[in-house]
Each structure stands twice: as C-alpha cells, then as structure tokens.
Automatic annotation (TrEMBL):
Family statement: Belongs to the LysR transcriptional regulatory family.
Domain HTH lysR-type: 1-58
Pfam families reported in the protein's UniProt record: HTH_1, LysR_substrate
Keyword terms: DNA-binding, Transcription, Transcription regulation
UniProt-recorded name of the protein: LysR family transcriptional regulator
Amino acid sequence: MELRQLEYFVAVAEERHFTRAARRMLVSQSGLSASIRALERELGAPLFVRSTRHVELTEVGRAVLADARRALAGAAATRDTAAAVRGLLRGTLLVGAEQCIAGVDVPAVLAGFRAAHPGVAVRLRHEGSAALIEQVAASTVDAAFVAVTGPVPEGVRVFPITREPMVLLCHPSHPLTAAADLSWASLSRATFVDFPPDWSIRVLNDRAFAVTGHSREVGLEVNDVHSLLDLVHHGLGVASVPRPIAAKDKAAGLCVRDLPAGAPMHWQAALAVGDEDRASPAASELCRTVTAEVIARVTPAMAPAR
C-alpha cells in the first residue's frame, strides 16, 4: 500500500467523482482508476459503488476513509518535522482567533510569520475563545489568539500577550457620562451592547455582574467591534470593553469611564497552543515569534530609568 494510493482514494471519496478527483490530483483518470483498483485488490473489498452519475463509498470504504486521512496527516507531520530539523518550516498552520480580539494585531502577526516562513500555508478561523481553546485541546486548531477567562483544558498551554482593564463606553449624552458616583447598581439600570454568550468579553461582563449581585439587560447583541461602537455612538446602549477597544479611532467622541470596584475586570489576551509533544513545528515557531514580540515590547517598559 502506497501513500499515493491513499491520496487518490481520499480525493475520490471527497469529490465523489473520478474525473474531478483526477483533475484535483493532476493525474489521468485511467491512472487514478488503476490505482484505486489496486488498493481494492490489496484490501480484498470494493471501496466505492460506481454508477454513471456519481460515486459512493461502500461500508468498507467509509471505515477505511478515517484511517486513510490519519495516515496521510501522519506522513505530512513526519515530513514537516524532518524539514524543521533541517532548519526549514513547511506545512499548514491553522490559526484561530476571536474576532477583533483586543490588544492583539492578529493580521500583522500572521503577515510577519508568513513573510518569515513562506513554506507554511496560514489558515485563519474566527470563533469564540472558549470554543477555540477546546479546538486547540482537540488538535483541530494548531494555535489560537484567545482571551483567557478561566482554567484551560489539559494539553493546552497559554502564553500571555497583554493584560488590560475593562472600561465603560457610553454616548456623551447618556446619564452615566455625568454620574458622579458610578456603581454596579446604576450600571444594572442601563441597556448594554455586548457580544454573544460564548465570547470572552461577554463572559467577563456577565461574571462581574454576578459577583456584585446585580443583573443587567443586554438589549443589543453583536458579533463585531465596529457594530458595537456604532450602536454606542447612536446612544442605543453602553458597553463594557477592554481598554484597547476604547482607544480605537472609531471610538473617538465616546465617553470612557473606569468601572466601579468590587469585581475583577481584566482582559487577558494570550496565544493558546498544544503541549510540546503535540504542537506542530509551525505552531511552536508561531509561539516563539509571539513570545519574542511580547518580551521586546515589555522589556523597555521594565528597564530602569537612567
């Protein structure tokens, strides 16, 4: 059994068509068909039910498909590891990120990494931090830029990038702008703009109100920072966000206030990767790159004044 046979088999299974699979693999249809027949003879069972219109996997074919994919992934990982030992980096890096994650310029980080390692294909996926951390634990995502709001699963390492306080954003005409004594009770009477429940900012806000014994109304729910800022600009609600969001150009003109004491309200952005024995060479290199950038940014601030 050869890896090429497994590649052809997976291509046909995914395309459900021999001609399209042959085109995808840059091989003649006759050559691909001959390779599939040889694999079927070796396994002693047909892998596909063929018809003039479409191709379907047999029961054996469905059982073999998962193993074939694992074998191909393992072979690719072996090649990538060997290349890394020789000082080369190749393969695919699947990165997750919470959309518009505060305190991290994800596009700039990925652009720098891609320029330094042109042999690595970078893929990006947007989801909530909790979901992305679980995907890192399951090895379905190589690395993720997330906000850490609690314990992480076993098998996941997190490398802090920035820690920022949460602040209140409101329209200049909103009553909370001029309130002399900002309290959690007064905040509980306001309408909030916030993100979906599995997003880290929402988790921090919900937790703060629970800790202080208050409830609030999230009247407007969005999935991007720009929409949140637009709604606050129009006076439709207030928002509790990490300080870097309040510093965005689009937030200009809004009132920024410190939140009341009584609840731990800090935003912790980090890079999540798998344990050393599971992280791909590309993920490990991204980790080293991000860690070096954080050290370079923090070190001047920590240096003693001359």
